[in-house]
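Practice problem 4.
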């Protein structure tokens, strides 16, 4: 489902992949926040104002909350997609169409028997590579050391990516980052650039 803040744009009128420049009525680069939750990244726009921001979130409750906030701020460079990130990214985004992704505090699924539900896998990282423009970047943060090791392993084993250490000091980008920083939890952060 593609949401234009409050209003659903019927998929029936849009043949995938979506022409986001038509939806935003400009050709700014796309930043996609995966698992956008309550939408702070989309509201704060820490990656710059001259970008189009898309949040993908599978919980409708958070989509509605973020949508209300975006509407109240009158932000017209933000859209929300409701559903599973992998299922939506595959058809809706053209190859090499995304300038950057943020993947902030993906659910770690602590119990071993639940870990198969984790979003970040080798297959998902390969999908990100196909959707990124050359030199496009994926920024990752998590408080979970084991999942961080799994995630970095997936990126390190995907030849399209090179490690791209972040130049800027950490920003309090998201709701979970603020929450975990207050709790003084360690935060593991990395970034990767698509090289070819
Ligand atoms: C721990 S929260 C982090 C939210 C936000 N990124 C932050 O840092 O505050 C993880 C979010 O990812 C969403 N999520 C988990 N799996 C997802 C998936 N497969 N597709 C889209 N969203 C997903 C969850 O519903 C939840 O809102």
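Answer key:
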């Amino acid at each position: 489902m593609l949401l234009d803040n409050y209003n659903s744009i019927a998929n029936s009128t849009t043949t995938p992949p979506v022409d986001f420049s038509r939806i935003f009525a400009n050709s700014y680069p796309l930043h996609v926040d995966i698992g956008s939750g309550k939408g702070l990244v989309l509201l704060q726009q820490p990656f710059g104002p001259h970008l189009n921001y898309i949040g993908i979130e599978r919980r409708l409750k958070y989509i509605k909350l973020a949508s209300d906030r975006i509407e109240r701020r009158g932000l017209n460079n933000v859209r929300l997609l409701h559903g599973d990130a992998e299922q939506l990214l595959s058809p809706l985004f053209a190859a090499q169409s995304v300038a950057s992704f943020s993947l902030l505090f993906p659910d770690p699924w602590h119990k071993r028997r639940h870990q198969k539900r984790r979003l970040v896998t080798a297959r998902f990282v390969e999908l990100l590579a196909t959707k990124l423009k050359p030199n496009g970047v994926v920024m990752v943060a998590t408080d979970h050391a084991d999942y961080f090791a799994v995630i970095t392993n997936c990126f390190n084993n995907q030849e399209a990516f090179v490690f791209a250490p972040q130049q800027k000091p950490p920003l309090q980008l998201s709701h979970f980052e603020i929450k975990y920083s207050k709790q003084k939890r360690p935060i593991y952060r990395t970034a990767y650039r698509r090289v070819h």
